Amino acid sequence: MRRVRVTISGEVQGVGYRYTMQRVAERAGTVGWVRNLRDGRVEAEIEGTDAAVRDVLTWAAEGPRGGYVDDLSVQDLPPIGGDGFEVRRDG
């Protein structure tokens, strides 16, 4: 299992990034959360198999139609388990 915290910058707020990531993450079989940050970035934690996390990160580097990604920063974290993938309140 792998867990990562990812911070995404670019045109990533107001374009459906969080809700699309939630669908992508659930389809990949990962758990975690995603939220907007006050500085215009999006932050997420994603946990699952290496392949599933990689699939979500590949999508995250592109983002949804209508937006664009300038930078994607990934930090590995210890796995903690969990259920589901949620969209959290802005942080």
TrEMBL record:
GO molecular function, one term: acylphosphatase activity
Keyword set, alphabetical order: Hydrolase
Name listed for the protein in its UniProt record: acylphosphatase
Presence of the UniProt keyword Transmembrane in the record: no
Recorded superkingdom: Bacteria
Family to which the UniProt record says this protein belongs: Belongs to the acylphosphatase family.
Active site: 18, 36
EC numbers: 3.6.1.7
Coiled-coil region(s): none
Catalytic activity reported: an acyl phosphate + H2O = a carboxylate + phosphate + H(+)
Signal peptide: none
Organism: Microbacterium dextranolyticum
Acylphosphatase-like domain location: 3-89
